[in-house]
Every structure is written in structure tokens, then in C-alpha cells.
Amino acid sequence: MSRHVLFLVASTREPGLLGNTEWLARQAAASLPVDTVQTWVHLARAGIPEFVDQRHTVGSYPMPDEGTVMRGLLDQTLACTDLVFVAPVYWFSFPSTLKAYLDHWSAWLRVPGLSFKEQMSGKRLWLITTNGDRAKAQPMIDSTAMCAKFLDMPLAGVLWGKGGAPEAVKGDADAVEQACVFLGRDLG
């Protein structure tokens, strides 16, 4: 099976502006073999609906309708071999766009017959993030690890770069060097 990498860009930057985290992710993506399928989704522009928690009332959720935003995201999520959170640190955590996507995992886990958890098991989860201070990224890194563990997904790697002002990460030589091999290394 060939590799299919789904990049979920969680930044809320204005359209057309490439943030530090996405720039770093694109450097990492450039190292992937040419036959690797890459899908890039900008969550802020996806139109993710608000999640309604009905776990303790109805208890299950219907399969998202064909042609809807959530069905598209579900299909893309299930089709990938590697899921990459491209998420700058916002207030020590995930941007709201990624959190909204993750909230819908609660629904997908409860769609009769979907077996979301089983289908996610074994897919590799990656995190690419930037902010001004690595210690402030730790809560998001921990959350990513917990998501991976819950779905039995290997946390394949975390790439952190010093971000902040536009283009700041370009000055982080260590992060740029790591990006060149981050996604392309042999995973056995």
C-alpha cells in the first residue's frame, strides 16, 4: 500500500498568508517520496459545523451525509496512512479549528458499523507545530500523544520550530534541518 499523508492545517491566519507552522510542514512534505499521495486541508476554511454531544442521550450518531463537510473529512481521515496535525500553539493548546475536528471523532466513534477506532488503529499520527517557546507547546504535544494512544495510533513524531512573528521559523536552523527528514525517514 502506498503512503497517503493527510495534512490538517489548523492555523487561522488570513487566507493567502503562509504561517510558520504550515511553512515548516511544507518543508517536511518536500522530503516525501514522489509517489506519496498528499492531501492538504485548511480546517479554518473547511466549514466544520459545531459538534453536538449526544453521547449520553441518543448514544449514537448517523453516518455523515454524502457531500457534507464532515463526510469529506471522515473519508479523508479514513483514507490516509499518516495524519499530520499542522497546528501552531494557541494558548498552550490546539487551535479551535483542530479541536472542532477532533470533537467530531466522538461522533465517528459512535456511528453504528463504522468501526472508526479500529480503522484508525495503526495509522501514524504526526504533529508539526511552532511557537515562541518549546515548553508552552508541551500541553498540545501531550494531547496529541493521548489522542494517538486512545486510537492505538503510533505517534510517529513531533516537529517543533521557533515561531512567533511571520517567517520566524525560517531562522530556526535546527527545525528546518529536522523538517528535511522528518516525514521521509524509513518507518519500517
Shape: globular
Which sheet architecture does the biggest sheet show? 5 strands, parallel
Q: Report the CATH superfamily.
A: Flavodoxin domain
The H/E string reads EHEHEHHEHEH
Helix proportion: 25-40%
Q: Which structural category do the helix and sheet elements fall into?
A: alpha/beta
> What is the third-level CATH name, the topology?
Rossmann fold
**Which CATH architecture?**
3-Layer(aba) Sandwich
The number of strands is: 5
**Whole-number total of structural domains:** 1
Query: In angstroms, what separates the terminal alpha carbons?
Result: 13 Å
- Percent in strands: 15-25%
Global mean pLDDT: 94
The CATH class, by name, is Alpha Beta
Task: Provide a descriptive summary of the structure in words.
- The chain is an alpha/beta fold and 188 residues long.
- The chain has a single domain (4-182), classed as Rossmann fold (3-Layer(aba) Sandwich), CATH 3.40.50.
- The chain contains 6 helices and 5 strands; from the N terminus they run E-H-E-H-E-H-H-E-H-E-H.
- A 5-stranded parallel beta sheet has the order 2-1-3-4-5, sandwiched between helices.
- Strand 4, helix 5 (134-150) and strand 5 (155-162) form a beta-alpha-beta unit.
- Helix 1 packs across helix 6 (173-182).
- It is globular, with a radius of gyration of 16 Å.
- The two termini are 13 Å apart.
- The mean pLDDT is 94.
Which structural traits does this protein have?
5-stranded parallel β-sheet, Rossmann fold, alpha/beta, 6 helices, 35% helix, 188 residues
